[in-house]
Design goal:
Elements: E1 2-10, E2 16-24, H1 31-79, H2 88-110, H3 115-127, H4 137-156, H5 161-166, H6 168-194, H7 198-208, H8 213-226, H9 233-260, H10 265-289, H11 301-322, H12 328-346, H13 355-376, H14 386-410, H15 416-425, H16 431-436, H17 439-447, H18 454-486, H19 491-496, H20 501-512, H21 516-519
Helix pairs in contact: 2-3, 2-13, 3-13, 4-11, 4-12, 4-13, 6-7, 6-9, 6-14, 7-9, 7-18, 8-9, 8-18, 9-10, 9-12, 10-12, 11-12, 14-15, 14-18, 15-18
Length: 520
């Protein structure tokens, strides 16, 4: 049998000439033997591929466990009894680790958000007497000043300011009107059904009405890229949800400071009127400074840019809380990071695909189990809560009905399927709720002279935990399951909603910018 073998010789000009040369090969090659070898080779490839898939995962978690045990050993050796297996510091760390591990298991088995397992871990830890963060309020309060800076900064780094300017009416109405109506509805229900004072009702409403975009953004990004309509779904949901979050954080800080910070009535009203505007102004100024500081030619420009916005946000939150201007820092962080991201994009950093975004994602993925687990330890299970939970379920249904109805009215010019999709994304309540829910209990414990109001704070927390456990899986599953069907468009709609090429490229780039949330 003759076989052609190609030999290649390269000329100095860079052109390749192929010569063919005949070589005699023996005819005695056994085809059957080769087939047997191929079959055995395929079997080994299958076994090898299975091993290749499972081995990295096992090694990854084995590495994490090893590092965790070594870290615990260092802390035990350095600080002694508090880090023994029954020490108070060990219990705090153990609940966080178990919350993270149970979340990973839940997500791998059901695809549900891991925060649900973390919250249940905290509830069970409190129920069985393993950990109660009421005994460690100084630690919990410190962490709850860090959480908002990370989660708000992470979300606002993905905002496209150009999209917000071009679609400001849609963003404002979708972000503000449903939120305002739900807050008002909740305050009325809490006052009429639970006997809450009006201020406590609006304080609860400011947290309760917040939509949790991080829960559904991976699904929105995935299904939004496959739709053929004119809407940039990731940016619409992200920016409208961001405005919703800004209102929640800002208004909560205003009411909280008004209720608990001792000062003159005139000063209280001045703060209430100026908090949102002062926060926005400070954030824009600091974000604009990030355009020039550090210099783009600095050797450590990446690290310094991240620290500039991160440390600035942390200082703002701690300082404004100390002086009684709660809520100002949350709005400032949203404005700062979105402004900085716009300037960084003009210097070559892709929107939400840059080192700052990655750092915020990693920080939040580390802090998320702590937020929900430690919030769960404030939830006390006993026989007397059944009435509150039943009334709370009714309040939840009423509030969701009002919110979804307002969304349907606000988005009257969209197709019915698209309006239903937006309603699905507006159901989950989790992030802001978990961060701020125990703050009223913290404040009352610190004041010590307003124990008669503790009953409101306890009911406050129960209603929020109930809302998280019910709405988060429902909203996630509806968005993920119905998204492909609801965002499909027919051929006529595709022609009607066809975009110019430049706008299409910008839309695709914006959608791609949130891809990394799926991997984290």
């Amino acid at each position: 049998m003759n076989q052609n073998i190609d030999t290649v010789s390269a000329l100095n000009t860079g052109v390749y000439i192929i010569h063919q040369k005949e070589v005699k090969t023996p005819y005695s090659t056994s085809v059957d033997a080769n087939i047997d070898k191929v079959t055995k080779g395929n079997d080994s490839v299958k076994k090898k591929s299975w091993q290749d898939e499972s081995a990295p995962t096992f090694i990854h978690y084995f590495t994490l466990v090893t590092l965790g045990l070594l870290s615990w050993g260092i802390l035990w050796c350095a600080f002694g009894e508090g880090w023994r297996w029954d020490g108070q510091w060990f219990r705090i760390a153990a609940v966080a680790v178990i919350a993270w591990g149970s979340g990973q298991i839940l997500e791998s088995l059901t695809t549900l958000p891991p925060l649900l397992a973390a919250l249940l871990t905290g509830i069970l830890a409190r129920h069985f007497g393993f950990l109660d963060m009421r005994h460690h309020t100084h630690i919990d309060a410190f962490l709850r000043r860090i959480y908002p800076v990370i989660i708000l900064g992470k979300g606002s780094l993905g905002w496209d300011i150009s999209y917000m300017k071009a679609n400001w009416r849609r963003v404002v109405t979708l972000g503000a009107l449903p939120w305002c109506m739900e807050v008002t509805t909740l305050a009325i229900c809490a006052h009429m059904l639970l006997g809450f004072p009006w201020l406590w009702g609006f304080l609860l409403g400011s947290i309760y009405s917040s939509v949790s975009c991080p829960v559904i953004m991976p699904a929105v990004n995935k299904h939004g890229k496959n739709s053929n309509g004119k809407q940039n779904w990731p940016q619409l949901i992200c920016t409208a949800g961001g405005l919703d979050t800004a209102l929640s954080v800002g208004v909560y800080g205003i009411i909280n400071s008004f209720m608990f910070y001792e000062t003159t009535d005139l000063y209280r009203y001045i703060k209430a009127a100026l908090t949102l505007f002062v926060g926005s102004a400070l954030g824009v100024i600091w974000g604009s400074l990030a355009k020039y500081l550090p210099n783009s030619r600095d050797t450590y420009v990446t690290e310094l840019r991240i620290l500039f916005v991160l440390v600035g946000g942390l200082f703002a939150n701690f300082f404004t809380t100390m002086v009684g201007w709660g809520g100002t820092a949350g709005v400032a962080v949203l404005a700062c990071n979105s402004t900085a991201a716009k300037h960084w994009a003009s210097k070559g950093w892709k929107l939400n695909q840059n080192p700052a975004s990655k750092v915020y994602r990693v920080l939040w993925s580390s802090l998320e189990p702590l937020v929900f687990a430690y919030t769960g330890t404030f939830f006390v299970m006993h026989h007397s809560i059944s009435d509150t939970m039943l009334i709370g379920l009714g309040i939840l249904l009423i509030c969701l009905t009002v919110r979804l109805f307002v969304i349907m009215m606000v988005c009257w010019d969209l197709q019915l399927k698209e309006r239903i999709f937006i309603c699905c994304t507006a159901i989950p309540k989790s992030i802001v709720e978990a961060v701020l829910a125990p703050m009223a209990i913290h404040t009352l414990m610190a004041l010590g002279n307003r124990e008669d109001e503790m009953i409101y704070a306890e009911q406050f927390l129960r209603l929020i935990v109930q809302a998280i456990l019910i709405t988060t899986p429902i909203g996630f599953l509806l968005t993920n399951s119905l998204g492909p069907m609801l965002l499909q468009t027919n051929q006529k709609d595709c022609e009607k909603y066809a975009e110019p090429k430049s706008m299409h490229r910008k839309s695709v780039e914006s959608q791609r910018s949130i891809d990394e949330d799926i991997r984290l």
